[in-house]
Amino acid sequence: MNKTKLAVPQDDAARTRSIRRSLLAWFAANARDMPWRRTRDPYAIWISEVMLQQTQVDTVIPYYHRFLETFPTIDRLAAADLDRLLKVWEGLGYYTRARNLHKAARAVVENHAGQIPDDLDALLSLPGVGRYTAAAVGSIAFGLAAAVLDGNVIRVLSRLDCVKDDPSKPKIRERLWQRADELLDPAHPGDFNQAMMELGATICLPRNPLCLTCPVAAACIARARGLQDKLPIRKKAAKLPLRVVAVGLIWKDRKLLIDKRKPEGLLGGLWEFPGGKRLPGEKLPATIVREAKEELDIVIEPGRLVCVVEHAYSHFRVRLHVFECRFLSGRVRCRCCDDFRWVRPQDLDTYAFPGANRKIFPFILANNPPAKTKRD
Q1: DSSP classification of residue 4
Q2: DSSP secondary structure of 77-119
Q3: Is 49 a catalytic residue?
Q4: 2-16, 24-38, 292-306: which has the minimum mean pLDDT?
Q5: According to the CATH classification, is domain 3-224 in 1.10.340.30?
Q6: Is 0.85 topped by the overall pTM?
Q7: Domain 242-373, second-level architecture
Q8: Which residue among the candidates 49, 90, 198, 272 is catalytic per the annotation?
């Protein structure tokens, strides 16, 4: 790296103008072709921004197309059954986003005549719409002068201004929001916000940033000081806790019992096989018996261990020990769930399941159902 070629302007106004001009020119010439960049429809832009939260672009694109094919207008989304929405969203993760989209769509239809509001305060009043989403939709769809701050923008700003404080701290995060507002080009807020995010995603990478091709390298204080690889300050990632869970494949008349989770929480509204976390000192088959009684008020008999599957979510890992079980007695009642169904194995795919539960499907379909679980 040749530091002698760096020339960080000392005048703040001149430096800001230089960053805006260079970044917008770079974005105009190098922006990736994405489907949501080919539209000015606020609804489509809103859907893309929600999907892109904590999810990679390549993962989002097929979901984005499928979602808009299924729910082409906000009215269709508002009128949709939540189960159908969750099935379309299945596999994208962070299901609270989908549930909030549904609530927000209904709020737009009821309170804004079906038109996504072009006002930041009104956008912020919608369920699930926070500061970032309101600014992204407002700036890109309506040209509102509101800056965005996501992980990519935090990284860019931390290096541009050589911020040596932890951006996860509230005071530092607020200072970065203020800095993003100061740097925003008010004449082209949507393009500038997208350019900042694009720069972080393609050039100002978390490790080994491509400084030689960066359009604002000459204005980057961290690079001038040789600190670009050390910023932003990163907290050491904590080890994800492991939850040991027992799951029952409860058979009755060649059908499986599934239940729907309560609407709140990480996986709210999704279907799953009955089961739950093992208590300290509890044997796994006993966990299944206890959970079946507590959740569904039924008595079951655990059989053989079918499989063990592992899955990682954002804040924890699960290890599912899956047992085939026989229904003995009782009338199914939803004590700790929202609904239940007895379904044929081949129909499981019509329901929205968490990723961990879906990993059990191949074992079920390979034994449809296992002969020894048939009732006499």
Answers
A1: G
A2: HHHS-HHHHHHHHTTS--THHHHHHHHHHHHHHHHSTT---SS
A3: yes
A4: 2-16
A5: yes
A6: yes
A7: Alpha-Beta Complex (3.90)
A8: 49
